[in-house]
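Support case: user asked for a sample of complex input and structure output to validate their parser. Sending the pair below.
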Amino acid sequence: MSNVDLSPGSRSTPLPQNSFMDQFNLEARTQRVWDLSHAVWFTLMGLGGGVFLAGRILNLTDDLGHWFGIPMVDIVSFVAIAIGGLILVADLGRPLQFWRAFANIRTSWISWGAWSDLVFLTVAGLLVLPELTLGGSQPFNGLGWEADGSDATGLALEILAGAAAVIVMTYAGAVLARPRSIPYWNSPAVPIQFLLSSAATSLATVLLLMAINDQPISGGHMALLGTLTAGLLATMAVHLLTHRDAPGKQQSLNSLLRGPHRRVFVGMVLVVGTLIPTLLAFIGAGVPEARAALSMVAFALLMPGGLLLRLTTLRVGIFPPVHIPSSRQ
Amino acid sequence: MTRWGMVIDIGTCVGCQACTVACKTENQSPQDAWYAPVIEWESGVFPDATLNYLPTLCNHCEDAPCVTACPSGAITRRDDGIVIADEDICIGSRACMAACPYGAINFFEDSGTASPPAALAEPQASVPERYAHEKHVHGAISKCTYCAHRIDYGVEHGLEVGVHPLATPACVVSCPAECRIFGDLDDPESNVSRYLTEKGPGQILRPDAGTDPKTKYVNLQ
């Protein structure tokens, strides 16, 4: 007969296979499967798509440095999305079957995400290929389109890559928001928050590159950053203040605002990661000489703020009980 | 059109967990994976305290969020309404687990080895545990199928589904209190339809989820 270790903290049985729920108790349950790796994945996808769009929309691709002839903003974008995609694949239960994620584009947002990642990396990669410089020569220069989108083919590739980038930025929030199982996630506010956070972080990244490359940052750039972060604050406020008594969402809000996630969410996400960057951006809009420094600080605050926004959103994903007895209502 | 469904009469459930065990034995579900758990909770105050039971399983929803969320198409709804998962197609994204409001989907964690974990190699490991380890796909999900293999066997062999023990889900057959009733919801003469006619339209779990479940409850309070 084997000895069973009953000392405190010992574990004689493996973790439940259904780590989302304790299936024998009638309680609200916090999901425990999607966590830090997913938050990093969501953040990198948003950053990658957003940096590409910000560089193109603000027409800054040529001014912020190059690597092997490819604009640095595009390099940042490709690397972020490629790493995000690899994290997604690594987290699958069966990573070698990852290609099956493309199958259900009819209804699954993860399929949409997989396709948009692939389309973005392919089309945006093709778009910049003519500028690739190896050993002083540009072997793909004769491909027949302009990498900055100044001719018809280049523009078509740019628009297609831009559309894919928008989906890349959006789908993670949509994955959470679509099912009604977790009331805190089941809200349009979740994908909007993720989108605004991605846009703000991406713009801050581009402004950081501008500051590093001694490019002038305009008041309009800073005002745009402030508007995005203010919009993020407003969306978070709406999300926190609506449907507060719904089963499941009530527990999520308790956990965020009064429970174990209070310091991280209120302190790091709301105040340090969103409110202060908003103030810095609007101050920078009116103080030209401080813009470079303020944009660097804004980037340093927005980046962890965005990651923690996603992480806390995942960690307060709470399933209400499958049934609420009349005696508890 | 056949539309298989189940009615569970909470008023007659005695909480014996025979269904839970019968399901595990029938499906050889992975260690610690439960397709048909009976939830228990206490209510009232002594001396008027009560222990309540709620048998659960996959609700085989008409508008199944797991089917919608699955990126690989591994979870599908058959023409007879049964929601099934193909473990060979599943990639283990677990999107279905987040989407299911009932916690009815289990994930078979990949141990990263081709051989069974050490615990299963020990002499006290049960035969079902060893068998399940070989049968189920690591890194994939698994769930209740309403014992589709038994239903299909019954249809093939002309047995009355929901009545003949070989053509009825194991949890229904094993229930000593007969609180689970299975049959064709679209057939007004089926045992399940007649039960609902007699007892009322039936209630569902998590109505806010809008999934239109085919597992219905009677006497749910």
